[in-house]
């Protein structure tokens, strides 16, 4: 059965095409492209991706405007039904602003935009997004962000750590994120937000393929469901 | 009705921009500055019969991110 994915484009998204290319490369099926103003999602989706970029020019707060766009009401409903949702970079910011994920992404502690490969440690290998990695595996994935400094209060941090919801940690903290958190899952495990860009690490010609396993995991989870 | 919404970072939330401004003030020779915190002002012009509940909802749903920010609503006239 074909893998039916959707990639959402907001005004200012700039990694939507990369995301679609990565998903098609791994799944063999081109994702449906969905516009922020669409009132409905296509039927029968297996996977929804919110890409990186600067939706609505980062007005007010990164991701704040996009979180209130028409399509997000549908995405919140889909996530509550259990559809896997991946938010990368600005997509992660949108998911926190939409309250699908805990915490917030603040300005990098060093004030600068960071664009380079970073080392990540895979902390959770049970999730539908990370089952293809080995426990404790160290991978290299690019980051490109100004607002990637993950913040949540200590109680929330203790809870998400205790529940095994930290998917990835920075091996060297590049942006001030609390407890080195680079990617976090929701309580049900079907929503993942992460600042690093796995869709930029699916082709050896672009410097690495450590992102492939994330998409492969999601596709395999669906096949086994 | 003119309404001013003041959004500020919650105490305890690190404010790297505020810290940089603080250091810059010290660099300019201003002594005795304990700290600087950066917030945001949003001026709204709303219908006179807008309820306090509606204003609060605007802040909670969009104007502030209550995970990291506090807000204060001031009616200007």
Automatic annotation (TrEMBL), chain A:
GO CC annotation, single: cytoplasm
PROSITE patterns (UniProt xref): GATASE_TYPE_1
Subcellular location: Cytoplasm
InterPro entries (alphabetical): Class_I_gatase-like (IPR029062), PRibForGlyAmidine_synth_PurQ (IPR010075)
First-listed, main subcellular location of the protein, grouped into a coarse class: cytoplasm
Catalytic reaction annotation: L-glutamine + H2O = L-glutamate + NH4(+); N(2)-formyl-N(1)-(5-phospho-beta-D-ribosyl)glycinamide + L-glutamine + ATP + H2O = 2-formamido-N(1)-(5-O-phospho-beta-D-ribosyl)acetamidine + L-glutamate + ADP + phosphate + H(+)
Keyword Calcium: no
Assembly and oligomerization: Part of the FGAM synthase complex composed of 1 PurL, 1 PurQ and 2 PurS subunits.
Protein task: Part of the phosphoribosylformylglycinamidine synthase complex involved in the purines biosynthetic pathway. Catalyzes the ATP-dependent conversion of formylglycinamide ribonucleotide (FGAR) and glutamine to yield formylglycinamidine ribonucleotide (FGAM) and glutamate. The FGAM synthase complex is composed of three subunits. PurQ produces an ammonia molecule by converting glutamine to glutamate. PurL transfers the ammonia molecule to FGAR to form FGAM in an ATP-dependent manner.
Stated name of the protein: Phosphoribosylformylglycinamidine synthase subunit PurQ
Protein's organism: Qipengyuania nanhaisediminis
TrEMBL record, chain B:
Known EC number: 6.3.5.3
GO cellular component, one term: cytoplasm
Main location group: cytoplasm
Signal peptide: none
Pfam short name (any one): PurS
Pathway named in the protein's UniProt entry: Purine metabolism; IMP biosynthesis via de novo pathway; 5-amino-1-(5-phospho-D-ribosyl)imidazole from N(2)-formyl-N(1)-(5-phospho-D-ribosyl)glycinamide: step 1/2
Catalytic activity: N(2)-formyl-N(1)-(5-phospho-beta-D-ribosyl)glycinamide + L-glutamine + ATP + H2O = 2-formamido-N(1)-(5-O-phospho-beta-D-ribosyl)acetamidine + L-glutamate + ADP + phosphate + H(+)
Localization in the cell: Cytoplasm
GO MF annotations in UniProt: ATP binding; phosphoribosylformylglycinamidine synthase activity
Class of this enzyme: ligase
GO biological process, one term: 'de novo' IMP biosynthetic process
Keywords, ordered alphabetically: ATP-binding, Cytoplasm, Ligase, Nucleotide-binding, Purine biosynthesis
The keyword Cytoplasm is annotated on this UniProt entry: yes
Keyword ATP-binding found: yes
Similarity-based family: Belongs to the PurS family.
Function in brief: Part of the phosphoribosylformylglycinamidine synthase complex involved in the purines biosynthetic pathway. Catalyzes the ATP-dependent conversion of formylglycinamide ribonucleotide (FGAR) and glutamine to yield formylglycinamidine ribonucleotide (FGAM) and glutamate. The FGAM synthase complex is composed of three subunits. PurQ produces an ammonia molecule by converting glutamine to glutamate. PurL transfers the ammonia molecule to FGAR to form FGAM in an ATP-dependent manner.
Cross-referenced NCBIfam families: phosphoribosylformylglycinamidine synthase subunit PurS (TIGR00302), PRK05974.1 (NF004630)
Protein name: Phosphoribosylformylglycinamidine synthase subunit PurS
